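Can you give me the bound-state structure? Components:
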Amino acid sequence: MPLDNYQEILSDPPAKGRMISNLSVDCCIFGFENNDLKVLLVQHASGRSQGQWALPGEFVLKDRNLKEMPHHVLQRLTGLENIFVEQLGTFGRLDRVDYGRIITIAYYALISPQKYNLKVGADALDVAWVNVAEATKLIYDHNEILDYAMIKLRDRIKTYPIGFELLPDKFTLTHIQKLYEAMLGHSLDTRNFRRKMLSSKLLQATSEVDDSVPYRAPKLYTFDKERYDEMLVEGYFFQL
Amino acid sequence: MPLDNYQEILSDPPAKGRMISNLSVDCCIFGFENNDLKVLLVQHASGRSQGQWALPGEFVLKDRNLKEMPHHVLQRLTGLENIFVEQLGTFGRLDRVDYGRIITIAYYALISPQKYNLKVGADALDVAWVNVAEATKLIYDHNEILDYAMIKLRDRIKTYPIGFELLPDKFTLTHIQKLYEAMLGHSLDTRNFRRKMLSSKLLQATSEVDDSVPYRAPKLYTFDKERYDEMLVEGYFFQL
DNA sequence: TCAAAAGTGTTTGCAATACACCCATGC
DNA sequence: GCATGGGTGTATTGCAAACACTTTTGA
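Here's the bound-state model for the whole set.
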């Protein structure tokens, strides 16, 4: 399923009167394909920022709890619900945007490739998955936000098994190793990695293999959501 | 130096016109005394919230960068500068305050006991250091914020040696052990703790001892700021 | 038969843990 | 001399790290 194969479904932005005009939410939406970590960017369609690439975002809505806002952004942009989201932090330099004093609350989201199904809203010219390393020259302070997201993500992946949020339901051990390597920015020892993953009890072997490959077909695993939820509570540490 | 011995210096709140009226900053300001972790609370002097205890806070000022705001709060409240501060997160439930849609950015600050020197602003009836365990029944969602601060603090103390921010310039090994125990909520093995602390190279033994005690005078240590800064960069991990 | 990746065990060293007694001081 | 906390060492265990070859499959 290629990443650039999205549907052109218009999704209208909310009316101005429903927005809190000095407060926005911006999202670093991450995906993983072809052993690369990607981030979802939009190109602004109008106004002073027309043509520039940005993290997707919205003004906070008057009638929504703050924590619903990143889901609202994801819903408008991708139609997806129940996505993993965490707050990153709030950015409020005086000159961070060029048209007023806007403070933004940044979130990051992790979505699995089965779910790529992008809409392009009426306020965006284009939407694209971009390799994180190539997502330079974003508008406003969005590169600062993205850099911060990467730091947090690396930190988080070492402590919680959130990487699974980026994988399809069934995946191979190599698949998840490549994901960790992409996130951490260095390679990992295969034997040690596999031992650790399997001993974590997070994985469940299926009887299936991935026979679409032109070499020895690797086993497919699924990921044990119950065990994962237990770990989130007990403060699991994942040393890598 | 007793904690409740503060000066009654009035520090006027900023004019309403300088504030962003839907955005506030609230601070969990932590101190450590008598082996207890304390948080600084204020009692509101006027308005609907009069008499209630709260985390100190302010509305965000139009002409200040967001990251200066917690320092502004600390400055007004305590007169202190150069305090360790980190952002916790932003809280925005629709009904979190009872007089409108206010979103608040929460910070936590760590201050050392030498620096206790509190002012009481014109907008506060009273200011007090309260044991964290006893800081219940705060106004709005401030208990939620404080609970979250404690979780973050525990997490952080396990990874970075931020505990030193809560100690005076010279301290004993027992002193810092008690601090860690208070933060983590359980006791630690003295021999292991000392070995680990000393091998971290964060401490520098002085030739002095604390001879104010009625038993064997313990050695005083200072803390090596340079080594600490190195560690913050190299992502030091402090397993406790 | 070759290419490409899957899959598999053992050894080594370090760091965390558990554990108990003597020491110095002031009263 | 006694009460109080200061200060110290060793043995064990578990986990992370380093390391290389055989297996399977499709082309």
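A couple of observations. The helical segments of chain B are 69-78, 142-157, 173-184, 190-199, 225-234. Chain B touches chain A at residues 20, 22-23, 60, 62-67, 87, 89-94, 101, 103, 105 (CB under 8 Å).
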